[in-house]
Amino acid sequence: MIWQCPHCNHPLSLEKQNWRCSNGHSFDRAKEGYVNLLPVQQKRSREPGDSAEMLSARRRFLEAGYYLPLAEAICAQLLPIAGSGAPVLLDLGCGEGYYTRMLAEGGWPFGNIFGVDIAKAGIRLAAKKQPQAHFAVASSFHLPVADGSVDALLRVFAPGPAEELVRVLKPGGVLLDVSPGPDHLWSLKSHLYDTPQQHSAPKPVSGLTALRESRCTFTLAIAGNETVRDFLAMTPFAWTGRADARQSLEQQGTLRLEADFLLRCFAKPAAE
Ligand SMILES: C[S@@+](CC[C@H](N)C(=O)[O-])C[C@H]1O[C@@H](n2cnc3c(N)ncnc32)[C@H](O)[C@@H]1O
Ligand SMILES: [Zn+2]
Q: What does the pLDDT look like over 128-149, one tens digit per residue?
């Protein structure tokens, strides 16, 4: 088990309905199966992370298959690792858990899938749908995860500092980082902003060796007012850009956009 106590860093083990460390710290297992490992002092607001509305909109949108090409590209990069023993996967900022579900469907061993997100609403949705996986409410900036315990890290449009990623990876373990490519949703941005900017190139991840980089591009044809609303709700466009332009998009009922994702794969150098 990779979970460790967020107060004293000792390993956690499940006793009845509680995760406990040897120093007597204890964390309830929620009825959906997840555990809240986010100490109050790490909470910057009452409900940190994406809101319940954003996460439900994301769930409906992703379940409709709109990002399937990205899910397939992620599976193509990570599933070859799944065949070697019982590797541990950790999804950082996993939201409602779409990519962990796709990886499980593709053959990643169920019990070796872990996900963290700072938004409790996301973790609750993820845990309900994937009861054999392990989910925790936690910050990627202070992962309640043992040193050198993870074979594969996934980070899709989510934060997480390099030092924490390097710390939790096993030597030889990999990070798959997905970020927006330069043209991601360009026509939507041109519609909503007076001076739209292309996404800039992401930074290297210090402490990890870059292995390969690829783009996943496809046309996103979104149909139906509700789906357009869900899509806008799960992006920063829900509250930025020109409100009148956003409303006209919602009423229009269809959107044709460029999806452009950059997939970067890194490895932690093997121990000498
Ligand atoms: C754009 S969403 C992506 C969610 C998911 N990876 C996906 O692609 O469906 C970013 C996610 O990062 C989470 N997040 C934001 N800050 C975080 C932090 N400090 N630690 C963990 N998760 C965080 C948000 O709650 C949200 O679910
Ligand atoms: Zn403890």
A: 999 999 999 999 999 999 999 9
Assign 3-class secondary structure to 40-81. Answer: HHHCCCCCCCCCHHHHHHHHHHHHCCCCHHHHHHHHHHHHHH
Nearest CA to ligand 1 atom 17: 118
120 lines ligand 1 (CB under 6 A): no
Q: Say if ligand 1 is within 6 A of residue 73 CB.
A: no
Q: Which pTM does this prediction carry?
A: 0.96
**What's the CATH architecture for 13-267?**
3-Layer(aba) Sandwich (3.40)
Atom of ligand 1 nearest to the CA of 96: 9
Q: Which atom of ligand 1 is found nearest the CA of 98?
A: 9
**Please, what sign has the CA dihedral across residues 55, 237, 245, 221?**
negative
> What's the angle, vertex CA 219, arms to CA 215 and CA 223, rounded to 5?
145
Q: Is the CB of 231 under 6 A from ligand 1?
A: no
Q: Parse the chain into domains and list their residue ranges.
A: 13-267
